[in-house]
Write a structure and sequence with these properties.
The protein is an alpha+beta fold. It has 2 domains: 3-63; 69-272, Glucose Permease (Domain IIA), CATH 2.70.70.10. The chain is 25% helix and 21% strand. The chain has helices spanning 3-26, 41-63, 163-180, 182-186, and strands at 69-71, 77-82, 103-107, 138-140, 145-151, 189-195, 198-203, 217-218, 223-226, 238-243, 253-254, 256-258, 269-272. The strands form 3 sheets. Strands 2, 3, 5, 6, 7, 8, 10, 11 and 13 form a 9-stranded antiparallel beta sheet that branches. The protein has a two-stranded parallel sheet with strand order 1-12.
């Protein structure tokens, strides 16, 4: 599937979800002029496009698997991995938005009193972002790069730490963000051009924390901004991925390896020592 075809598929899918969402809301106020079950056709069409696109990506990976690209870790300190491509591919259950080899990581400080709150059944329904040690942690450039996209104007919402919060996240907020488009899903984010056709993405960045703007040149290890909880996120964490293009709607995922760390598996705790900003090309 070509880039143009992937871009068109992404557009049509978004329109179909928008139609489904609008008629679902309208159905609460007026009688729709057609059978209730017909209202599901746009959603089914969007799902069919997703499946077709995913099948195309799987075939491309099977016939021409991309080679891992070694880059610097995007954080320093003690962290653990979630949704790691070391355990399954696609790591997040989808090839869309270039997420095939994406990884989520969350801070794991040595002091247990500052540890990450665990999920609960009922209470508290949500938690403040400041309760999570990852919130506000600095994000570092994965290599010498050019910033091709940077935005940090979206809010950091509360965590979805309970069953009720997760249900709201999946059944209500998730649909709304899908209709809102890619930027509402990834939240505040940065895209770096690392050269040789490789691009790094940092998603769910903290509002107002970015220290770089589109067009800036950055060095490996340079601070870009802070970990946040914007977009389609249940708690503050770092979402990192590599892609073969700058457009999340059309790019394909590229496997990564973090220098000195590798690819941590789910629940694996790893530590990255803080270093001075430096250039990998020097």
């Amino acid at each position: 599937m070509s880039v143009r075809q992937r871009r068109l598929a992404a557009l049509v899918k978004r329109v179909l979800w928008l139609i489904f969402f609008v008629q679902a809301v309208a159905g609460f106020f007026v009688d729709l002029p057609y059978n209730y079950w017909l209202g599901w056709l746009p959603a089914l069409g969007a799902m069919a496009i997703s499946l077709t696109t995913a099948r195309s990506v799987r075939q491309e990976i099977a016939t021409d698997p991309p080679a891992p690209v070694e880059v610097e870790p995007p954080v320093t300190g003690r962290w653990s991995a979630l949704n790691s491509p070391a355990d399954k591919v696609p790591s997040h259950g989808t090839h869309s938005l270039g997420q095939t080899y994406a990884i989520d990581i969350t801070a794991e400080p040595e002091d247990p009193e500052r540890g990450r709150p665990g999920p609960v059944w009922f209470w508290p329904v949500a938690r403040r972002n400041q309760d999570y040690p990852a919130f506000g942690a600095p994000l570092h450039a994965a290599g010498d790069a050019t910033v091709v996209h940077a935005e940090d104007g979206q809010r950091d919402h509360l965590s979805r730490s309970s069953l009720a919060g997760v249900l709201y996240f999946w059944l209500i907020e998730g649909i709304g963000r899908s209709v809102g488009g890619t930027r509402r899903i990834v939240g505040n984010h940065v895209v770096l051009d690392l050269g040789e056709g490789t691009y790094a993405v940092y998603a769910h960045v903290r509002k107002g924390s970015l220290e770089v703007r589109t067009g800036d040149k950055v060095l490996a290890g340079q601070v870009l901004g802070q970990c946040g909880n914007s977009g389609n996120s249940t708690e503050p964490h770092v979402h990192f991925q590599l892609m073969d293009g700058p457009d999340l709607d059309t790019a394909r995922g590229v496997p990564f390896r973090w220098r000195g760390v590798g690819v941590p598996a789910n629940r694996e705790v790893f530590t990255v020592e803080a270093t001075e900003v430096y250039s990998v090309q020097s």
